[in-house]
Amino acid sequence: QVHLVESGGGLVQAGGSLRLSCAASGRTISSYDMAWFRQVPGKERDFVAAISWSGWSTYADSVKGRFTISRDNAKNTVYLQMNSLKPEDTAVYYCAATVGSGYVSPTTSDEYAYWGQGTQVTVSS
Predict the structure, then answer these.
(1) Half-sphere exposure of 64 toward its Cβ, with a 13 Å CA cutoff?
(2) How far is CA 32 from CA 56, 73, 101, 106, in A?
(3) CB of 95 within 8 A of CB of 39?
(4) How high does pLDDT run on average in the chain?
(5) CA–CA separation, 94 vs 103, rounded Å?
(6) Among 48, 2, 15, which residue's Cα sits nearest to residue 123?
(7) What are phi and psi of 27, to 5 degrees?
(8) Whole-number pLDDT of residue 45
(9) What is the pLDDT of residues 75-121, one digit of tens each?
(10) Measuring CA to CA, which residue among 67, 83, 68, 88 is closest to residue 17?
(11) Which of 82, 95, 111, 122 has its CB 3.0 to 4.6 Å from that of 22, i.e. a possible disulfide?
(12) Which residues pair with residue 10 across a beta bridge?
């Protein structure tokens, strides 16, 4: 079992930055693909970014060039640096993990086995 806890969410003005953290426990994440998803009320959970066990990162088109996913296996933590935030980035952000099996991480929520509780990000205009 992998237990994930997100932190770093909050309220920020448009154009600002936030860094989300996802601390894992229970297992070392070095062999896991890690991802961030986001969800707004009434909508499906959308893919944001992922980083494979080998370090290959993948991004949704809507966040490319603004968000950066990274991992620190020594700290068992994954990060999401969010710059140039827009009001449409407002959502609950979830960290997810699954055992890595390929070169590129999956980008659909049903392929991830472990989830955190989420952290709210609100971007004001």
Answers:
(1) 6
(2) 12, 10, 8, 11
(3) no
(4) 96
(5) 22
(6) 15
(7) -145, 155
(8) 97
(9) 999 999 999 999 999 999 999 999 988 778 899 999 999 999 999 99
(10) 83
(11) 95
(12) 121
What is the Cα–Cα distance from 25 to 55, expressed in whole angstroms? 19
Tokens 């407002």 label which residue? Answer: 90
Q: CB-based contacts of 116: which residues, under 8 Å, 6+ apart? A: 4, 5, 6, 22, 94, 95, 96
Instruction: Return the structure tokens found at 92.
Output: 């609950």
Amino acid identity at 53: W
